[in-house]
Design goal:
elongated; 246 residues
């Protein structure tokens, strides 16, 4: 009996692994969840890349707009802060407007100062006897110079009138430019952007005008011609032609 037991105890059997049975629809659900997570991860990486490509200024402006949106200022805990920030923004806008106005005023004052300085020099020469001014109107100075920008020319003309008690001169100026373009010589009249014709003048002792005109960048100005007309006159009382100065 013992031998029989010993024989039976020596019999070896193969190892059996017991695994629970998983239905196929659970496996499909797991695959779907994994795919969804990968899709969300890819979308997040795309959004992060898009955000990094936006300039910082635009992001800052977007955040600022969001901060000052009336909808974000509705909660009571933000109301006071949003009111203060809105006030600061208004002050900033007022400061910017004031700065622009001051800049424009400074430019106008600079132009006026240059005109007054030239008139002062003119009257000093007149008082010293160095300037010879006829009793009638005369062209005191006429200049033409090429500007730094291609195709832009700037010209200035000063008229003077002498005499003990001169009357106001009323008339107009007409300009024409002789230029070379595409191997051809052309004479082009300058028109007043306000009247579309000549440039009206009205003065007693001294008058200065500064303007600029534009031609094709590949064109070259040969000379500029001016005619001075009295009011309602068809014949010029003064003419002068100049060449551009370097």
């Amino acid at each position: 009996m013992s031998k029989l037991l010993s024989k039976n105890s020596s019999i070896s059997s193969s190892r059996v692994v017991v695994r629970p049975h998983i239905p196929w629809h659970f496996s499909l659900l797991a695959v779907a969840i994994t795919a969804l997570l990968l899709l969300l991860l890819s979308w997040g990486m795309y959004e992060a890349g898009s955000r990094s490509s936006i300039p910082k200024e635009e992001i800052a402006q977007e955040k600022l707009d969001e901060l000052f949106d009336s909808g974000t200022c509705l909660p009571e805990d933000r109301q006071e802060l949003c009111t203060q920030l809105a006030g600061l923004i208004r002050q900033l806008q007022i400061s910017q407007t004031t700065s622009e106005n001051l800049t424009n005023k400074v430019k106008k004052l600079g132009t006026e100062n240059n005109r007054l300085e030239e008139e002062l020099v003119f009257f000093r020469h007149l008082m010293s006897g160095n300037a010879k001014i006829d009793n009638d109107v005369s062209i005191y100075s006429f200049n033409l110079k090429k500007a730094a920008t291609a195709g832009i020319y700037r010209y200035s003309i000063s008229l003077a009138q002498g005499g003990q008690r001169p009357t106001d001169f009323s008339g107009s100026l007409k300009f024409s430019v002789k230029l070379q373009h595409n191997n051809q010589n052309k004479t082009v009249p300058l028109t007043n952007k306000n009247t579309g014709q000549g440039f009206p003048v009205n003065f007693k002792f001294f008058h200065k005008m500064e303007e600029n005109f534009k031609i094709p960048p590949d064109a070259k100005v040969e000379s500029m011609h001016v005619q001075v007309f009295e009011k309602d006159a068809d014949t010029a009382i003064l003419t002068q032609t100049i060449k551009p100065s370097l």
